[in-house]
Amino acid sequence: MFTAKQVIDARAARLDAAADAIWATPELAFEERRSAATQIEVLREEGFAIEEHLAGIETAFSARFGKGKPILGVLGEFDALSGLGQEADSLEKKPNGMSAGHGCGHNLLGMGSIAAAIAVKAYLEESGSEGTVIYFGCPGEEGGSGKAFMARDHVFDELDAAVSWHPAIINKVNTNSSLANYQILFKFDGTAAHAAANPEMGRSALDALELMNIGVQFLREHMPSSARIHYSIVDSGGISPNVVQPHAEALYLIRAATNDGVRQLYERVLKIAEGAALMTETKESHEFIKACSNTINNEVLQREMDRIMTQIAPPVPDQEDLAFARELTLRTLMGAPHADPEKPYAAIKLPYDYNVGEAAGSGSTDVGDVSWLCPLAQLSAATWCLGTPGHSWQVVTQGKRRMAHDAMRYAGVIMAETLISLLKQPDLLQKATAEFRKRVGKGYIAPIPEGVRPRSLTNL
Q1: DSSP letter for each residue of 238-294
Q2: Mean pLDDT in residue range 251-265
Q3: Taking Cα atoms as reference points, which of 420, 405, 161 lies closest to residue 308?
Q4: Domains of the chain
Q5: For the residues 86-93, what does the mean pLDDT come to?
């Protein structure tokens, strides 16, 4: 009897080694050349047809196998986060000299998704079934919304359904939505002057930027509680306090529960920026960097994924991983939600909780844009010990451990079996498609304007 687990277990060493190779070469959004190459090498070895430079993005690619319908997608990522270089298997913060690190586990995410694609390919070959599986190598999830650019440029249009997953501290099917967001670079230009001798001649761009930030602080009281606004001053106008700063820039990330909600909030932030420029007699301009959509749930597909997940035991940590997780918890995670040195791993599957599934959650993901184009389901798998905060050195230090590898392959099995269910049960896909069409209404409107191109945050 065919099982995805047998296929994936047979390739465990190769999958784990590739995940570790990506961990060791962390690259930022749209710069993931070595990471993409590592994934492509594995997929070519497995007999997939590769298409590179999707949507004109250097590090976006697909790997296809099969023929005919249904066409099923598996979403993968491989980008890292800046400032999180960290030695593996360390119980303390110990930078390893790298400027970036896999603080969101994308070295595991991509290879777990590749594992799923390999298993679906094996099923198609063994069963002789008609159908196509496509793995999508999606760059720039962290601060770049690579999938949103790909969705805007019609990369995913042919999909009948898709699956994804994310490293986490729990094992469960994801049922919450996610926040839509816009990322905007605001710029102010003024007039330089000697800050002591001729202050009246100057028009401070930094004053304008600070006034904008203050205005946004007051806006927080009058926006939905689920909305978020963050910013980073990326150019303060120089280091000389005796110069009236003639230029200043801030990168804003604006989030809301829906695409329409984030658009409305963005328009309010624009007015604040315009007002700050008016108050300081400076000029304001802005550049649209990227955006992503809120996630559309699909209960039919999610419940099928949960049914499969219930039948497959999650990985259990060995004594070495338990000892490491207990010590890491005691040293660095005490007081964090769910941290427990006695039971440091969530070695169980959490129950399905769709009744609260319409909540927006607190994060954003460009997976949301794909969910507007086809039925989609996601899961979380416990690659990290309980209490581990996302985007942290603790994530990086656990990224090559046996438990991380086991959970990565476990996620691959769940995703593969979910897609195989759709191949075996056409009526299930029909029901998921009917629900999808009802939920998306008039359909997908790309949140990123035409003409905006992806770019790394190191190249603003």
Answers
A1: -S-TTB---EEEEEEEEEESSHHHHHHHHHHHHHHHHHHHHHHT-EEEEEEEEEEPP
A2: 96
A3: 420
A4: 4-178+294-440 (3.40.630.10), 180-292 (3.30.70.360)
A5: 98
